[in-house]
Amino acid sequence: MKAAVLRAPKDLRIEAAADPTPAAGEALVRVRAAGVCGTDFRIWTGDRQVRYPLIMGHEFIGEVAAVGAGVANVKPGDSVAVEPNYSCGTCALCQEGNRNLCLSRTAVGIDVDGGFAELARIPARCCWPAPAGLTPEQLLLTEPLAVVVRAVRRGAARGGERAAVLGAGTLGLLAVQVLKAQGARVLAVSRSERRLALARELGAEAVHSLAAGPGSEAARRFSGREGVDLVVETAGTPEAVAEAIELARPGGRVVLTGLPHEPSRVHFFWVVRRELTLLGSMIYQDEFPEAMRLLKGGAVEAGPLVTHRFPLDAIQEAFGAYRLPDSIKVAVIP
Ligand SMILES: [Zn+2]
Ligand SMILES: [Zn+2]
């Protein structure tokens, strides 16, 4: 098979590799599309350490090409979205049902080879069969959408509430749509005017550009009170985390789902004074089916989010496109 092999930071080569063979309990997936996300970018630049050589790519979908012994949940020919994380299954966290928090979790495309290749070998339990009628681009957004579905659930969004979404990348633009599907009214907050225009198209009732200053006044205007009921933070920057706290009303909830890699200067005085509920939300547990349901039913639009497509041979260009101001989701099509 053909694969994009990372041999060192920014040294990504298209190479011929042996076709993987599925062992017992595993599935071989013929990759139809793979998304590039911030994690891939950090691995590519070397900011995030991995073992080389590595085939990156954790947001991918495709068709089951073969299965190993004992696999019952999928069969060859099935169209699937891949859940690219699997837990150990035996630790206390796994046994409690918190498999997304397992400390021995394996991340496909990070700890083991992933989807920037024609074929990928994964545990069959990571394959979620797609409902009929989903396009490959819809299916490709299942993984980031599952992240957002969990974050919105953690925040317990209710119909009629005012919510703010911080960040208008893939996760933020999906969060706008999921909150709207829950009946919440949404204020989108971002540094990018261009993305805010898209947030409006996708259902944000109001937008605020951080280029014009902090968003607390916009949150007060939008909510008609001291701030919004719920904030979903998706940007993962230290500034965005601090900003999220400023948008919530007293008694409000703040869900952090962007992973802040740097420490943030948060004025915790306001967390106490406003009795805020701060919630972390880490990837997903069982949110893939709900994500597929939202895509299938049309509550979440995928089309406008997939802005760039590159064949596997041009994967270097895909990483270049990731940083373009007009790029949201960049897809690699093997
Ligand atoms: Zn990702
Ligand atoms: Zn575990």
Strand content: 25-35%
Cα-to-Cα separation, first versus last residue: 10 Å
Structural class: alpha/beta
Q: What are the segments in which pLDDT stays under 50 over at least 5 consecutive residues? A: none
**Residue share in helices?**
25-40%
Biggest pleated sheet? 7 strands, mixed
CATH topology of the largest domain: Quinone Oxidoreductase, Chain A, domain 1
Provide an overview of this structure.
There is one protein chain. The mean pLDDT is 97. β1 (2-8) and β2 form a beta hairpin. This protein has two domains: 2-141 and 302-333, Quinone Oxidoreductase, Chain A, domain 1, CATH 3.90.180.10; 145-280, Rossmann fold (3-Layer(aba) Sandwich). The chain is built from eleven helices and 17 strands. With 334 residues, the protein is an alpha/beta fold. The longest helix is centred in the middle third of the chain and has 13 residues, at 142-154. The N and C termini lie close together (10 Å). Strands 3, 4, 5, 8, 9, 16 and 17 form a seven-stranded mixed β-sheet that branches. A six-stranded parallel β-sheet has the order 12-11-10-13-14-15, with helices on both faces. The chain binds zinc ion (ZN) (2 copies).
Please summarize what this structure is:
This protein has 334 residues and is of the alpha/beta class. The chain contains eleven helices and 17 strands. Strands 3, 4, 5, 8, 9, 16 and 17 form a seven-stranded mixed β-sheet that branches. A six-stranded parallel β-sheet has the order 12-11-10-13-14-15, with helices on both faces.
